[in-house]
TrEMBL record:
Coiled coil regions, renumbered to chain: none
Organism: Cuerna arida
Protein name: Uncharacterized protein
One Gene Ontology cellular component: side of membrane
Glycoprotein as UniProt keyword: yes
Membrane topology, record value: Lipid-anchor; GPI-anchor
Length: 157
């Protein structure tokens, strides 16, 4: 059975696990129409380099990882937002890596979505409030999806 067939077979379970994480975007709740708004603050780190990145707590505004998304050249004129990526890397015994950063290309419909290929899966979430990409956000749905996708990979191997 190929990975893609396994993913198709488990799609109903993935959708059930994933559905609570799919929410209406918060972006419209905070957009005041002004281009001169202060920069958003996001946690910016990678657990592959900074081990404490994996377990950041909400409201840890004194963390060294809590920084403004202020490099406007990097965002090509788009309004930055916070992003959290949970990767499960199959080739490394299903190691989970957490990446928190600023983003500028929004998913048009979903605040959380998943991507998969033969060597890893990732759950990508976007949010639009200061510090919203801390550890507690999206973790239940993300863990369920990662477990199902990891099981799928084991069955295929």
């Amino acid at each position: 059975m190929s990975l893609s067939r396994c993913l198709l077979a488990t799609l109903p379970l993935l959708l059930l696990a994933y559905f609570p994480a799919v929410t209406v975007s918060q972006e419209n709740l905070i957009d005041d129409g002004s281009d001169a708004s202060p920069p958003i603050f996001c946690y910016q780190c990678n657990s592959g380099v900074d081990l404490d990145c994996a377990n950041l707590q909400a409201n840890s505004t004194n963390s060294v990882h809590y920084k403004p998304c202020s490099d406007l050249g990097e965002y090509k004129g788009a309004k930055p937002f916070c992003r959290k990526i949970e990767q499960t890397i199959f080739e490394r015994n299903n190691m989970v890596r957490i990446i928190r950063k600023c983003g500028w290309e929004k998913h048009p419909k979903l605040d959380c979505y998943n991507l998969a290929n033969d060597d890893h899966v990732e759950i990508v979430c976007q949010c639009f409030l200061d510090g919203c990409n801390s550890a507690h956000h999206f973790s239940a749905a993300g863990a369920a999806m990662a477990m199902l996708l990891g099981l799928c990979h084991i069955l295929v191997s």
